[in-house]
Fold this sequence. Notes:
The chain has 50 residues and is an all-alpha fold. The protein has 3 helices and no strands. The longest helix has 25 residues, at 25-49. The termini are far apart.
Amino acid sequence: MLYFALKERSKHILDGLKLWMERNNSAIMTVICLILAAKLVGNAISDLSS
């Protein structure tokens, strides 16, 4: 969406974001997996208590 709003000016912003995501891929994936695990554990506890 940023590209459609800013066209060529967004290239610098998006390139920086891509580089940051490539460098921090393992940390990003770890956080996503922890959030998913917390959601699954929360659902399991909720099902057990009802």
